[in-house]
């Protein structure tokens, strides 16, 4: 018999709140995390984009100075989120078999700040000034490793790297670890800290970023006709996934069930989504099939919806293909309108929003939707939070990444 | 050039920055590994920061001989 994977703890640090409670309240109210980047390098490099969705609270509000010094910002954020989720779940390593406690995290690029800072140090000051911690700080598995050490998780610490699908793929791994009985508890999620001039220049070069420098808060506008690109974000989200049996035995509060998940690859183009959304629709169908979820039970989707002119529509096409007329009954939230795009952490944050939507029966709003694109006729939640029905419901969260990665997670109420 | 008292104070600041240990804990008779629990990676960071602060060169092969805070202070005093 397959074991059920349930969610018992949530943690986050994001552009719209340094903890889950604040972030959730802001997500229901509709809050933009975008603001000008107040760093010398914006002018120094004459960057075409001068704003981003930056963390509302620095990781050093939680971590000690010495802890932070040895970690790339990606790892710092991941650890902040994981500690909150762990505390929220009420878990203690004294009460569990740490050989059966695992970490499944995701990141898009890993320690990009460390890598590039160290390169600057090498060129400007020589090899002696390259810190001995450089390599362990820049490696993309840094967050998973730090969380594993912090919580004594000895059941494996894995990292998925699939660009902007990384966080959602991490949840897919976590579900399998629980359902196959390899772990009792998994700390899953994603972290990303890439608000650095190089990624900004790179994304801007491919015309992926919004250039609305004069009005950052209006820049991330998924599904709006005037959308002109995504807003780079940073932060981390973490979820404690536990076997139902384990959660019940300790009397833990369950927020939702991680019922199903799936990944599919486009095998089409390195950056452009397959225009008919074939990979995305396969991932959607497989995620629902993995727990026999009936289409009609799906009442809410937290969409990938990055606010790029070319990206938002294929996701709609995929959902229309899968849901048909039922799509009109589904409340769609595009939370990147508020948080910006956290790349490899976005799926983790959006999974948290989806879990809370099921738990509270309320969905976050999509901000900046002034004129909905007529080519994307969906029921997009805006203005005020969406209300989800009582009874048994399911909700999905989609993530897609450069490389043709499609990942979908499906939650049910508990 | 610097006297040993100043070197100790400066070294204590570097150790504090890297490890969080209080500066008062960094005393001459303390062993970096056994007493201060400083691993080899932290030790290298401390050495590089000390080189910069005191304008000295501490060769890599010398680092293993710097077992105590006294060893480090003496080496820096002689090298500067």
Which features characterize this protein?
heterodimer; A: 414 residues; Peroxisomal Thiolase, Chain A, domain 1; ten-stranded mixed beta sheet; two-stranded antiparallel ribbon; 14 helices; 19% strand; B: 80 residues; mainly alpha; Non-ribosomal Peptide Synthetase Peptidyl Carrier Protein, Chain A; 0% strand
Write up this protein.
- The complex is a heterodimer of chains A (414) and B (80).
- Chain A is α/β, with parallel strands linked by helices and 414 residues long.
- Chain A folds into two domains: 5-249, Thiolase/Chalcone synthase (Peroxisomal Thiolase, Chain A, domain 1); 262-412, Peroxisomal Thiolase, Chain A, domain 1.
- Chain A has helices at 20-29, 40-44, 65-69, 73-89, 112-125, 134-138, 142-151, 166-179, 197-205, 244-249, 278-289, 312-323, 336-339, 346-360, and strands at residues 5-13, 34-36, 51-53, 101-106, 157-160, 185-192, 235-243, 256-265, 298-302, 331-333, 362-363, 386-387, 394-401, 405-412.
- In chain A, the strands form three sheets. Chain A has a ten-stranded mixed β-sheet, with helices on both faces. In chain A, strands 2-3 form a two-stranded antiparallel sheet. In chain A, strands 11-12 form a two-stranded antiparallel sheet.
- Chain A is globular.
- Helix content of chain B is 57%, strand content 0%.
- Chain B contains four helices and no strands.
- Chain B has one domain: Non-ribosomal Peptide Synthetase Peptidyl Carrier Protein, Chain A, CATH 1.10.1200.10.
- The interface between A and B is small, with 9 and 9 residues.
């Amino acid at each position: 018999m397959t074991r059920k994977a349930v969610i018992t703890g949530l943690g986050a640090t994001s552009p719209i709140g340094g903890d889950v409670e604040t972030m959730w309240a802001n997500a229901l109210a509709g809050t933009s995390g975008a603001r000008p980047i107040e760093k010398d390098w914006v002018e120094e490099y004459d960057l075409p984009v001068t704003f981003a969705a930056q963390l509302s609270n620095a990781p050093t509000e939680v971590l000690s100075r010495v802890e932070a010094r040895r970690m790339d910002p990606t790892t710092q954020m991941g650890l902040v989120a994981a500690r909150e989720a762990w505390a929220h779940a009420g878990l203690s390593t004294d009460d569990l078999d740490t050989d059966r406690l695992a970490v499944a995290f995701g990141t898009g690029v890993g320690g990009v700040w460390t890598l590039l800072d160290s390169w600057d140090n090498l060129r400007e000051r020589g090899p002696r000034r390259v810190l001995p911690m450089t390599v362990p700080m820049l490696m993309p598995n840094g967050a998973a490793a730090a969380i594993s050490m912090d919580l004594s998780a000895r059941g494996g610490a894995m990292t998925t790297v699939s660009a902007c699908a990384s966080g959602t793929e991490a949840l897919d791994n976590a579900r399998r670890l629980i359902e196959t009985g390899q772990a009792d508890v998994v700390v899953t999620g994603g972290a990303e800290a890439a608000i650095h001039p190089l990624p900004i220049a790179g994304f801007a070069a491919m015309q992926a970023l919004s250039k609305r420098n004069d009005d950052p808060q209006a820049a991330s506008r998924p599904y709006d006709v005037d959308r002109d690109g995504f807003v780079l974000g940073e932060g981390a989200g973490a979820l404690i996934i536990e076997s139902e049996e384990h959660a019940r035995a300790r009397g833990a509060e369950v927020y939702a069930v991680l019922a199903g998940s799936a990944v599919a690859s486009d095998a089409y183009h390195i950056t452009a989504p397959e225009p008919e959304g074939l990979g995305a629709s396969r991932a959607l169908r497989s995620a629902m099939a993995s727990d026999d979820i009936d289409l009609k039970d799906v009442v809410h989707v937290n969409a990938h919806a990055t606010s790029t002119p070319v990206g938002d529509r294929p996701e709609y096409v995929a959902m229309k293909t899968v849901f048909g007329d039922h799509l009109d009954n589904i409340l769609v939230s595009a939370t990147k309108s508020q948080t910006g795009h956290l790349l490899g952490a976005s799926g983790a944050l959006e999974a948290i929003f989806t879990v809370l939507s099921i738990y509270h029966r309320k969905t976050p709003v999509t901000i900046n939707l002034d004129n909905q694109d007529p080519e994307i006729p969906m029921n997009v939640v805006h203005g005020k939070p969406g209300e989800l029905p009582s009874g048994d419901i399911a909700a999905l969260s989609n993530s897609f990444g450069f490389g043709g990665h499609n990942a979908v997670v499906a939650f049910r109420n508990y | 050039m610097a006297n040993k008292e100043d070197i100790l104070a400066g070294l204590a600041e570097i150790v504090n920055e890297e490890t969080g240990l209080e500066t008062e804990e960094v005393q001459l008779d303390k062993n970096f590994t056994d007493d201060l629990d400083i691993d080899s990676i932290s030790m290298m960071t401390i050495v590089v920061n000390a080189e910069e602060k005191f304008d000295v060169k501490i060769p890599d092969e010398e680092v293993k001989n710097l077992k105590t805070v006294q060893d480090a202070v003496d080496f820096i005093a002689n090298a500067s």
